[in-house]
TrEMBL record:
Record's keyword annotation contains Transmembrane helix: yes
InterPro entries per the UniProt record, alphabetical: Aerotolerance_reg_N, Class_I_gatase-like, Double_TM_dom, DUF4159
Protein name in UniProt: DUF4159 domain-containing protein
Species, as recorded: Pseudaminobacter soli
Domain of life from the UniProt record: Bacteria
Length: 945
């Protein structure tokens, strides 16, 4: 018997509530015990003739109390259950529970276990056996039959696995075991994802089942998975998928982590309505991208949302080809000599000894290089040409160097980025140079845009490109006269590049310069790894030990006891319980074994069509509550109240019993003591607080008693956390190096918080943060006019000017903010400014990035600069602007370790960044005090007198 949300185990006992009227009648009929009073003798004599009276019935409130107590006892004996759980009547002789415990079950594993426990409890009520099988366990795992207690123990010992399910093998074992349990029902607790072999597996499982089938899948599939990552030219690209049934627009954030688990980059992935695939890009310098060891989607606690990275995302395999005979006889004149030495530090080089291009090119492609370098290779045989072009179109990078052979070869528009000119290509003639040509500024559209042109490099000979409308778009480097030095172009997914000079120092001294190494390094970063190869010529598989595994919840953990070495062959190894996803190898090198392949999809699981009756069950925790114990406790409490009421009515608590001439003083003393304690328990501070105090006075006193550095709360949690950690690290460094001991940094809301308490406010500019209101900007303007200093940090040193010289989003946002402020004229910090010597001698002010200037108020009225050691502008600049990400360089975690790496990774750059912070704080607190040194000669002269 059940009335939602209340049910009863023995509803027949509720008929006992009909006895409540009888109990009421008995209680009203039976009078209470007469009350006894002790009177003085005269009082007794005065009432001798008075007839004694006793009440004939109980008071109404006592009757109601006893009726309620009886009702609670009857309800408790009926075993009521609040919010009773869903019960499925299978009617079978036992039950076989088949439960998915793959990676997709990890986020709501507790609800699945609670659902299975309910099925086991229902089976225990009928006394039937229980088969319990999991689809992501070893093939020989025990599946029963168990009794109810044994099934519960097996269920509690199970856990989700970071691997796909193997329904065909497990369902076949369950179907075989059910032959010994005729009439048993089947319960399928699935994760909701379909697999190609599901139809045959379900057919095998449900064949011969006549009892009802229990079917449970999640109400909604919302999991996400990472299927691919690519370290491209413009950033690190991610590809994520979601189930086909999830059609609403969705936006998620993914983070990149280094090998110490520190988050160093973010990307946003947006799914449009109806789309199942989304991509995102982390636009960070390639030095940081090479530090990535794992990428994960925020909020997804399962293994498919994590992707580990190995050297295939960093180091590349590069193939080298040359037709020159000087390779063996004269190494220094070999076309590959400088290329080989330039690439060895950051690439794996492979070469072929066969001079026949028809053989060497296919052999080289078979080793799956990311990039192939051809040093002065002329005409390519037709068969090898087709294979090479196909390799490039699939993502390969072909880099060619000019020479006499290439100059004499027929034009090859497929494997050259530009059409080469016929005719003269060297000195002499109308196209000859009067003097060797230097290298011009690298154009912004190429991979060398961040390099500085080498002043010492000159070119005396080159092959010339045929002028065309798109020659500027394909030029990655050029000479001072405008002729291309390096050109490049896309071929579908691949890239073709050409150095218009030789790779040895015959036509140019470029190969013996440091710029040559950096140019090749950029081209290697352009390339994409093509896969893995067999580790030896015999084709035997390599065996790598497990190093770090991905757990079912997405965390990186040490190898489990079930993990076994992974055999690396030419194809992708499957993910199994013995080879779970993760990193295999050693600290010297690892191999990434990820859960999802690039072509993976999430398809919802459809309920199979079977002849038996299907009862659907929802995954849910058991939220039912047994009310028997609370009701009995309430009845017991009412019994205690009833007993006290009877004692009271019998005179046990009479006033005369407690307040006698001897005991009355005791009660008064107790009351007086309580009053005194209440009086003296008031805070002593209350005596010192004036009646004229106003709200906020205590906070103001605390704010000005210690110097606090403040930062603007932007509303972006990642930015605000770095700002707080950065100012915390700077404050700790200031305490160690100076006499100042700043307090904890304070986040301020410029729209409503009082700003006058803080001498310096750090404002990180984030284009994703909301634009401040006019009132908030007016408050900042007033703060700066009254002597405060705001340090604006756009944190975009490496993003400035990447889009054809246009301002970055952060810089544009800063311009919008400053457009509403009364900003004085600004200039980069001059060499003789107070900031350069406020505490440390600082010629520049780096942060996490270096190279960006620190802008301050211009000293337009500076005078007498010959005799003064610093500029004479009084006061402190109300505004400072940088793009070097100061807080990122200062930020420390709870353990005192620096959170973010510097770019470039230089330990001294962080020291200089902290010193820059000290100089800024000292300048902000003391102004131009060092300019007073101009009076030193006068003081010394007076002391001499």
């Amino acid at each position: 018997m059940s009335w939602l949300p209340l049910s009863f185990g023995f509803p027949a006992i509720l008929w006992g509530l009909l006895a409540l009227p009888v109990i009421w009648w008995l209680l009203r009929l039976t009078p209470p015990r007469p009350q006894t009073e002790v009177f003085p003798p005269l009082r007794i004599l005065a009432q001798v003739l008075r007839r004694e009276e006793t009440p004939h019935q109980s008071p109404w409130w006592l009757t109601l109390l006893r009726l309620l107590m009886a009702a609670l006892v009857i309800l408790a004996l009926a075993e009521p259950i609040f919010n009773p759980r869903e019960r499925v009547e299978t009617g079978g002789q036992g039950i076989a529970i088949v439960m998915d415990n793959g990676w997709a079950s990890a986020p709501d594993w507790d609800r699945r276990v609670a659902t299975a426990e309910r099925l086991i409890a229902d089976a225990a009520a009928t006394g039937g056996p229980v088969l319990l099988a999991f689809t992501a366990e070893k093939p020989n795992a025990e599946i029963g039959p168990f009794d109810a207690e044994g099934a519960r123990n097996r269920l509690r010992a199970a856990k989700p696995r970071p691997i796909p399910t193997d329904r065909p093998a497990v369902y076949a074992r369950v179907a075989e075991a059910m032959r010994a349990l005729p009439g048993a029902s089947v319960a399928v607790l699935a994760d909701g994802l379909a697999a190609p072999s599901d139809e045959a597996a379900f057919t095998r499982l449900f064949s011969g089942v006549s009892a009802p089938v229990v079917w449970a899948v999640p109400d909604r599939l919302s999991m996400l998975g990472l299927t691919a990552t690519e370290n491209g030219v413009d950033g690190f690209r991610l590809t994520a998928i979601r189930p086909a049934g999830d059609i609403a627009p969705r936006q998620v954030t993914a983070g990149a982590f280094d090998d110490r688990g520190r988050r160093i980059a973010d990307a946003t992935l947006s799914f449009a309505a109806g789309e199942t695939t989304a991509t995102g890009t982390m636009q960070v310098p390639f030095e940081l991208r090479n530090d990535f060891s794992a990428v994960a989607i925020d909020g997804e606690n399962q293994a498919a949302a994590v992707r580990v990275l190995d050297e295939s995302a960093k180091r590349r395999r590069v193939g080298l080809i040359s037709q020159s005979e000087a390779d063996q006889a004269q190494p220094l004149l070999s076309p590959l000599y400088y290329i080989r030495h330039a690439l060895e530090p950051f690439a794996d080089l492979v070469e072929t000894s066969n001079p026949d291009l028809a053989v060497s090119i296919p052999d080289l492609i078979a080793q799956k290089p990311a990039m192939i370098v051809m040093a002065d290779v002329g005409t390519i045989p037709h068969a090898a040409h087709a294979q090479l072009l196909d390799w490039v179109k699939k993502g390969g990078t072909l880099v060619r160097f000019a020479g006499s052979r290439l100059a004499a070869a027929e034009p090859d528009p497929d494997l050259l980025p530009v059409r080469l000119r016929t005719g003269e290509r060297a000195l002499g003639g109308t196209l000859s140079w009067t003097e060797p040509q230097p290298v011009a500024e690298f154009p912004p559209n190429g991979p060398f845009s961040d390099l500085t042109p080498p002043n010492e490099v000159t070119v005396t000979r080159q092959v010339l490109a045929e002028p065309s409308a798109d020659i500027l778009e394909r030029t990655w480097a050029s000479l001072a006269d405008g002729t291309p030095l390096v050109t490049g172009d896309k071929r579908e997914n691949g890239t073709v590049a050409l150095f218009h000079t030789t790779p040895q120092a015959t036509w140019s001294n470029l190969p013996i310069s440091g710029t040559f190494v950096e140019m090749l390094r950029r081209l290697v970063q352009l390339s994409r790894n093509q896969g893995t190869i067999a580790p030896n010529a015999e084709g035997r598989a390599a065996t790598l030990a497990p190093y770090r595994m991905i757990a079912a919840n997405g965390a990186l953990v040490p190898p489990t006891p079930d993990a076994r070495p992974l055999e690396i062959r030419g194809t992708r190894a499957p993910v199994t319980i013995e080879n779970p996803p993760g990193l295999y190898g050693t600290e010297d090198g690892v191999y990434a074994h990820n859960l999802l392949a690039a072509d993976s999809t999430f398809a919802p699981l459809s309920r199979p069509q079977i002849a038996s009756q299907v009862k659907e069950l929802h995954y849910a925790l058991d939220e039912s509550r047994d009310l028997k114990a609370p009701l009995l406790a309430a009845a017991l409490a009412l019994m205690v109240l009833d007993t006290l009421a009877v004692f009271w009515m019998g005179g046990a608590f009479s006033r005369r019993r407690w307040i006698s001439p001897r005991s009355g003083g005791t009660v008064a003393a107790v009351l007086l003591s309580i009053g005194l304690l209440a009086h003296f328990a008031e805070p002593a501070l209350a005596q010192n607080v004036s009646s004229d105090a106003k709200p906020g006075d205590v906070e103001a006193i605390q704010a000005v008693s210690v110097t606090h550095l403040a930062y603007v709360i932007t509303g972006e949690s990642s930015v605000d956390s770095v700002s707080k950690a950065g100012l915390t690290g700077l404050a700790r460094y200031i305490t160690e190096k100076t006499a100042l001991e700043p307090g904890q940094p304070v986040g301020v809301d410029i729209a409503k918080d009082e700003l006058a308490f803080y001498p310096l406010i750090y404002w990180p500019i984030d284009p994703a943060a909301p634009m401040p209101s006019e009132d908030a900007i007016a408050r900042i303007d007033a703060y700066m006019r009254n002597g405060g200093t705001v340090l604006f940090d756009t944190r975009d040193q490496y993003a400035s000017g990447i889009d054809n010289g246009a301002a970055s989003p952060a810089t544009q946002r800063l311009r919008d903010i400053l457009g509403n402020l009364n900003v004085p004229p600004l200039e980069p910090v001059p060499e003789d400014h107070v900031l350069t010597k406020a505490f440390y001698i600082m010629p520049e002010f780096p942060g996490r990035y270096s190279g960006g200037p620190l802008w301050v108020e211009a000293s337009l009225d500076a005078s007498n600069t010959d005799k003064r050691p610093v500029r004479t502008g009084d006061g402190v600049s109300p505004i400072m602007i940088t793009s070097n990400d100061f807080a990122g360089a200062w930020a420390i975690d709870d353990g005192g370790n620096f959170m973010l790496p510097t770019v470039p990774s230089d330990p001294m750059q962080r020291i200089y960044a902290l010193r820059a912070g000290i100089n800024i704080v000292m300048y902000m607190l003391t102004g131009n005090y060092k300019s007073d040194q101009v009076h030193v000669p006068i003081l010394l002269e007076r002391l001499g007198q």
